[in-house]
Each structure stands twice: as structure tokens, then as C-alpha cells.
Amino acid sequence: MEYVDFSWVKEFPAAVTVCDVDGIILGMNDKSARTFAGDGGYGLIGSNLLDCHPSQSRNKLENLIASRRENTYTIEKNGDKKLIHQRPWFQDGEYAGFIEFSFEIPFEMRHVNNDGNND
Q: How far apart are CA 17 and CA 36, in angstroms?
């Protein structure tokens, strides 16, 4: 599989990491490389993201990749709250792996209901 062209997202202010169907990291943007600098940053490209996780997280990721389901949750780490969104991506209609988006978000967020019941 070819490496993904990341020119469109290089300086995007959220961490974006792309892996293939086996968990091999195909690309990451600057924010992702900074986030994972302690683990190798851009040097992680070509390695398996499953190797970067303890067994419990690794099992969850393996199941997620195999089932092709999306996964969304929030975390708090180093004083920041983040929204993590992982979802399958496709190339020419074929399942190609997963993309993880990691956004820093406020601890208190307004929720807007576009069905007419706004906060």
C-alpha cells in the first residue's frame, strides 16, 4: 500500500493519524507527530500502532480494525480534554484502515441541537 499524501492536513490543529488494515501507520500530521514525539514522532510511520499500546488497548484496537466500526470518546490527559474519533477509511471503495482524529476541546462545551432545541 502507498503512503498517504498528507499535504492537506500537515498544519491542521488536531492530531491526525492514518493506519492501514494491519495497523501500520501510513501517515501523520505535525500535531500527531508532536503528540507522539516521545514514542518517535514521524519516525513511527511504517511501524504498527498496535505495538504502541498496552494489551487492553491493543485488544480494543485490534477488534475495532477487524470490525471496521467507528469509535468516539473523550479523554483527559496532561490537563487537556480531548475528543478522540477513530473511523474506517476507504480507497477506491475498498476498506483501507483507520484514521484517528484527536481534538483538544473545552472541559465545558455547549451542545447545539439543530432540530430547533438549542441551548
A: 10
Whether 95 is covered by a domain: the verdict is yes
Biggest distance spanned by C-alpha atoms of the chain: 47
Read off the pLDDT of residues 11-33 as tens digits, 9 standing for 90 and up: 899 999 999 999 999 999 999 99
Domain count of the chain? 1
CATH code: domain of residue 36:
3.30.450.20
Q: How many residues are listed for the chain in this entry?
A: 119
pLDDT tens digits, one per residue of 47-79: 999 888 888 888 988 898 889 999 999 999 889
Within 10 A of 49 (CB to CB), how many other CB atoms are there?
A: 23
What three-state secondary structure class fits 34?
Answer: helix
Among residues 75, 88, 94, 95, the alpha carbon closest in space to that of 35 is found at 75
Would you tell me how many other CB atoms lie within 10 Å of the CB of residue 96?
18
Instruction: Note the pTM of the prediction, 2 decimals.
Output: 0.84
Assigned domain for 46 exists: yes
Q: Determine the structural domain holding residue 86 and report its residue range.
A: 15-105
